[in-house]
Design a protein that fits this description.
Number of domains: 1
CATH superfamily: Rhodanese-like domain
Strand order of the largest sheet: 1-2-6-5-3-4
CATH architecture: 3-Layer(aba) Sandwich
Number of helices: 5
Strand content: 15-25%
CATH topology: Oxidized Rhodanese, domain 1
Oligomer: single chain
Distance between the termini: 48 Å
Helix content: 40-55%
């Protein structure tokens, strides 16, 4: 009986640990990759944060997260526009599928941004 209870407690603790990790996101080179719903909730809970949509203007015209600023990653002025942003506030970044935002997040990290959150799977993975 004691072994059964111990095993049950171990399973519960492991399950709790895994579920907390999956909702919080994972860090890679200082960039936190977050599940879509957790990404949006975390951004909305911030009092001062930047939300960057790095898709094309055409993609943004089909829908975007409220409060985002559009800085097209493929635009020749992306680097110039990013340099104008405050590096001391948290940055949340997303694209359509996750590839461009991952590259943009890495660029932000290289430019000295302290706290960067990237939406795993991009805007297309959000349940609307």
């Amino acid at each position: 009986m004691k072994n059964s209870l111990s095993a049950l407690v171990s399973i519960f603790a492991f399950s709790a640990l895994v579920s907390c990790q999956s909702s919080a996101g994972t860090k890679n080179n200082g960039v936190e990759l977050m599940p879509p719903e957790a990404f949006v909730e975390s951004y909305q809970a911030e009092s001062e944060a930047l939300l960057i949509d790095c898709r094309t203007p055409r993609e943004v015209s089909l829908g975007a997260i409220e409060g985002s600023i559009n800085l097209d990653y493929r635009s020749p002025v992306f680097d110039v526009e990013v340099e104008k942003l405050d590096k001391d506030v948290p940055v949340y970044i997303y694209c359509q599928g996750g590839g461009r935002s991952a590259a943009a997040a890495e660029k932000l990290r290289e430019l000295g941004f302290e706290e960067i959150h990237d939406m795993k799977g991009g805007y297309g993975s959000l349940s609307h």
